[in-house]
Design a protein that fits this description.
Order of helices and strands: HHHHHH
Radius of gyration: 18 Å
Amino acid sequence: MSEGSLARATGLAAALFAVSVGLGVVAVARDPAVGTEVMGLFRDQVVAELLSDSPAVLAGKLFLNNLATCLLLFLGGASLGVVTALILSVNGLLIGAVTELVRQQQGLLYIAAALVPHGIFEIPALLIAGGLGLLLGRELLAEWQGVGDAAAGAPPPARLFLRAVVPLLAVAAVVEAFITPAILSMIA
C-alpha cells in the first residue's frame, strides 16, 4: 500500500460519500416528508436509546457504534469493495437527509454546531476506513488475477486502521458526548 494508492482510494471514498450526502439533501429538499420519515427512524433506532445515558456511557456507545461501522467499511473490501461502497452510500444518504431536515427546521448554525465539533474527527475516520476497504477490494481483485498477494499486503492497512481510525473515533465519541451537547445548548 503506497501513500498515493491510499490517497486515491480515500478520495474515491470521499467522492462517493459526498455524492450520497448530496443526494440525501436533494431528496429532502424536494420532499421534506422523506426527511421526516428518516428522522423518525433515526430517533426511534438511535437517539431514544442514547439520550438516557450519561455522557461517559454515551461516548462509549458512540465509539463502539462508529468502530463497528468503520470495521465494516474496512472489511467490506473483502466483497471487492461492494459492501464498503454500500455502507458509504447509505451513511451519506442518511446524513444528507437528516442534515437537510434539521437545516430547514433549525438553520445552518445549528447544523454546524451539531456536526463540526466531532465531525472533524469522525468523518476522516470514516473516509480512511472506506479507503482502506476499497484498497482491500483492489488487492483481492489483483490476487484473483494472479498479480498480487492480498494477505501479504494486509498488515500495513490494518496497522493504519489501528493507528489512525481508532484514535479518531475515540476523540470523536468524547467530543460528541461531552462537547457537542454543550455547544448546542448555547445556541438552542
